[in-house]
């Protein structure tokens, strides 16, 4: 089964052709990073306009790369939630027109399920159930993946996501948007002989699988502002390493508890922030300590892309999910909900 998939939940205009939910025939992405870097973050209106400009070209590129014609497509999958509502609507409207013109079903896909499905592409032998920790720019979730289209949320952040904390700290340190990658690189340059800073790792005794990154972010920002006001120098690399370690510790402790609670021996990571080297290293160590099988998708599949939407769309199609011309997009929506 060939699926044409569209992803426009934020600032990446992406299209892909996948076969049977596992094989990627093409994965075209147009990134808007250069445009949004000028503003220090994504400007929703500009993102939506750029999607409209690029969707046709990106989709044509995906079809050409795959070596298929429109008549070969069996369904169109599209991200319908969650994300920037204007950006989502551009992709959804385009997908509706494409599905209608080709006479094939429209399959709305949840963005988080797409990130989880990136693991099926990277690891063809992976099957549910398993535990998946999702860390993206706007989400931090600990998910019980019971089946391909059945995801249960065990816990998550009560405020900022891990990616938001990284981006805001990176901005304070003077890095342009998106700063997460540069923050990781700076952290790796820290002197291994120097101790890390003591940063908060908030928790909730009554809800041990929930977390918070707002206090951690604020503590780092206050530290930088205080040093600047006093005219004092501080080791930027040590600070970067300290926040990477703190975020990793928070994620690892919840993931360990969730795996023990579920009795799972398969742990996966997903989302753009899963490309962070400290997080990947921490999960590798966790798997070694617990004897769990670890699934870490390559960085290229961690960020937003349409191939993961095509994979998730295949399993959503098998589960009977269909959209029509009245299908709406949703800025917020739990992966536990159905379209």
Estimated radius of gyration: 20 Å
**Helix/strand/pairing category:** alpha/beta
Relative strand content: 15-25%
Give the integer mean of the pLDDT values.
95
**Spatial sequence of strands, sheet with the most strands:** 3-2-1-4-5
Helix content class = 40-55%
What is the 3D shape? globular
Give the termini distance in whole angstroms: 22 Å
Show unreliable segments. none
Largest sheet descriptor: 5 strands, mixed
Enumerate how many helices there are, as a single number.
11
Oligomer: single chain
Question: What's a quick, concise take on this entry?
Answer:
The protein has 339 residues and is of the alpha/beta class.
Give a description of the structure:
With 339 residues, the protein is an alpha/beta fold. The chain has helices at 33-37, 44-66, 85-102, 111-122, 162-172, 180-188, 214-230, 236-262, 277-290, 299-302, 306-318; strands at residues 2-7, 12-19, 23-31, 75-81, 106-110, 130-135, 140-147, 150-156, 266-270, 293-295. A five-stranded mixed beta sheet has the order 3-2-1-4-5, with helices on both faces. Strands 8-7-6-9-10 form a five-stranded mixed beta sheet, with helices on both faces. Helix 2 runs parallel beside helix 3 (85-102). The radius of gyration is 20 Å and the shape is globular. The two termini are 22 Å apart.
